[in-house]
């Protein structure tokens, strides 16, 4: 008996051939070499900015993992541009219309990397989607994840990339293929970070059993960084140069450089990206930002 057209299996999308440039291939090797040392959220942010960025450029990265205690996916947001509290709340709300729509779209795509148009989301998710489109300046997101074997609707991890502007179709196809290549490393690294953070919060865990990662006590106190330094850090997060920050504050670029050096020492950071990541981990930046800088 011939099955009706409604019951014919959907064709499986053909894999996209991916040829990495020399620089991209080197970035992939460095990414894989650096991944085992990533145990904390701020380390993950630095790793993503240093090693994932050359392969999948982004200003927004939302990472989701299945939390068995909650019996659902929990999301964490990393961003290098200023986003409003309303948008961040929507991105971190697993039960909200926006994240439910994004998750369902990936499940409906049968576990393949997905370019998701914000304008095509359901009506309930549209207000948050329109807010994201305005603040991030993008029309779509790149989404990929890992589901349980034989249970495609049960998400183990989900990664959502947003970037300012929209890439051309050819570049978009390559980005999806590149993300498919990176997914195992993203999944393993984020699962390790989540496990480490959970262990460090567990009461009564003997110190000998704690994972080899920076302890909260080793991080500098919040009060050590001044409000002006937090403001400068927020602008650094957005990629502003010393000259741009100096122009906004009516000071010299050398003064900005001295501020940055003090920030690095206070946060025990070796570079700007690490300083921003530590500041985000400590909750120092908040909504401080560079409004008014061109």
UniProtKB/TrEMBL annotation:
Record GO biological process: regulation of DNA-templated transcription
Alphabetic keyword roster: DNA-binding, Transcription, Transcription regulation
Annotated protein name in UniProt: HTH luxR-type domain-containing protein
HTH luxR-type domain: residues covered: 218-283
GO MF term set: DNA binding
SUPFAM superfamilies xref list: C-terminal effector domain of the bipartite response regulators
Alphabetical list of CDD domains matching this protein: LuxR_C_like
Species annotation: Pseudaquabacterium pictum
Annotated region described as Disordered, given as residue ranges: 201-222
Domain of life: Bacteria
């Amino acid at each position: 008996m011939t099955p009706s057209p409604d019951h014919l299996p959907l064709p499986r999308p053909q894999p996209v051939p991916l040829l990495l440039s020399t620089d991209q291939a080197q970035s992939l090797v460095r990414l894989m070499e650096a991944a085992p040392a990533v145990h904390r959220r701020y380390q993950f942010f630095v790793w993503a900015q240093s090693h994932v960025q050359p392969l999948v450029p982004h200003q927004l990265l939302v990472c989701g993992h299945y939390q068995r205690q909650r019996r659902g996916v929990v999301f964490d947001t990393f961003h290098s541009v200023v986003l409003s509290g309303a948008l961040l709340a929507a991105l971190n709300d697993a039960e909200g219309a926006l994240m439910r729509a994004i998750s369902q779209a990936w499940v409906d795509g049968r576990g393949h990397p997905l370019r998701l148009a914000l304008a095509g989301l359901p009506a309930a998710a549209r207000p948050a989607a329109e807010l994201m489109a305005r603040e991030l300046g993008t029309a779509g997101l790149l989404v990929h994840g890992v589901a349980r074997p034989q249970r495609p609707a049960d998400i183990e991890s989900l990664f959502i990339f947003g970037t300012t502007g929209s890439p051309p179709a050819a570049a978009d196809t390559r980005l999806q293929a590149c993300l498919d290549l990176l997914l195992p490393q993203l999944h393993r690294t984020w699962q390790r970070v989540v496990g480490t953070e959970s262990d460090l919060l567990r009461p009564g865990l003997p110190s000998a059993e704690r994972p080899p990662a920076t302890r909260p006590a080793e991080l500098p106190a919040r009060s050590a960084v001044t409000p002006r330094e937090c403001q400068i850090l927020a602008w650094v997060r957005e990629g502003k140069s010393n000259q741009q920050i100096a122009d906004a504050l009516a000071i010299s670029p050398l003064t900005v450089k001295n501020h940055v050096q003090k920030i690095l020492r206070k946060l025990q950071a070796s570079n700007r990206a690490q300083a921003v990541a530590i500041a985000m981990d400590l909750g120092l930046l908040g909504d401080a930002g560079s409004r008014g800088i061109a």
